[in-house]
Amino acid sequence: MFTPQGPSLRELAVQALSSVEHGYDLLAPKFDHTPFRTPDTILDAVERALAGLGPFDAGLDLCCGTGAGMGVLRDLCRESVTGVDISAGMLAVGRERAGAGKEGADSADGEPIPGGPRVSWVRGDARALPFGPVFDLAVSFGAFGHFLPDELPRLFAEAHSVLRPGGRFAFPLPAPAPPGSPWYWAALGFDTAMRVRNALWRPPFVMYYRPFRLGVVRDELERAGFEVELFALPEFGQRPDGSPRCRMVVATRPNT
After folding, report:
1. Are 107 and 84 contacting, i.e. CB atoms less than 8 angstroms apart?
2. Given 3-state DSSP classes, what are the helix, strand and coil percentages for the chain, each rounded to the nearest 5?
3. What is the pLDDT of residues 173-190, one digit of tens each?
4. For residue 115, how many other CB atoms are within 10 A of its CB?
5. Model-level pTM?
6. pLDDT, greater one: 86 or 180
7. Most confident of the following: 10-24, 51-65, 105-119, 191-205
8. Tens digit of each residue's pLDDT (9 = 90 or more) over 203-241
9. What is the rounded distance in angstroms from the CA atom of residue 152 to the CA atom of residue 220?
10. How would CATH label the architecture of 37-176+213-252?
11. Between 137 and which of 45, 59, 77, 117 could a Cys-Cys bridge form, CB atoms 3.0 to 4.6 Å apart?
12. Is the torsion defined by CA of 46, 48, 53, 55 positive or negative?
């Protein structure tokens, strides 16, 4: 699963026994060499699907980590791109790899990239975002497993609050693996292990793969005031019943 540049088993164990924030601070230097980083195939598919919904001026990468989704926004947004994450370590790595240096990882002061939008890296909690309604597009990749189901209303309300009227909140959502698939049992086993870990150890490390399902997500987005559309990502094919293997969820803040 990991390249030679990735974390060792011991490093993963130390991370898993930490809080979410501190765990990702520890993992940050090697995060991009793990399977936890969103694959480029998904990033590229979402970018292609969003390109027809623009133009966008200001973009936000919610729970940006080391910045995999920031590249999507830099290609789509004309004026500014902002990444927000709770982990200072992930932000520092993202800034360094983007060529902005390590200083100011907690700063909201953007730095221009020649020929591209202004880029900012901001430390903040997705459940209490430090922004007003200034974004046309918000995206998130691979972060929703860190939020418990009862946190979704607050999370989606925050996403709604930072979008301008007509702004869009978009993210990929793969279909759940069928019960006969090894991925189904792998996810079930992982979630079970995390529940046992959190029952026995503090601080908790929230990371569950299975609760974030389309029906629940759609209902909570609509309760937050969004209008929800689904876009099939054809690059990933169809399930035996003809439904997409992966969708892009687009939640729009109404103009009124």
Report:
1. no
2. 40, 25, 40
3. 999 888 888 878 888 888
4. 5
5. 0.87
6. 86
7. 51-65
8. 888 888 787 889 999 999 999 999 999 999 999 999 999
9. 7
10. 3-Layer(aba) Sandwich (3.40)
11. 59
12. positive
Helices within the chain (DSSP H only): 9-16, 20-27, 40-51, 70-76, 88-97, 152-161, 182-200, 214-223
Q: Give the sheet arrangement for strand 56-62, strand by strand.
A: 111-112, 118-123, 77-85, 56-62, 135-139, 163-174, 246-252, 227-232
Q: 55: cis peptide before it, omega within 30°?
A: yes
Q: 111 pairs with which residues across the strands?
A: 119
Closest CA to 113 of 60, 69, 74, 83: 74
20-27 and 9-16 are packed helices; what angle lies between their axes, rounded to 10 degrees? 160
Domain boundaries, the chain: 1-36, 37-176+213-252
Q: Would you give the distance in Å from CA 242 to the centre of its chain?
A: 27
Q: Are 136 and 169 in contact (CB under 8 A)?
A: no
Residues contacting residue 4 through CB under 8 Å, at least 6 positions apart: none
Task: Check: CB of residue 107 under 8 Å from CB of residue 122.
Answer: yes
Amino acid at 33: H
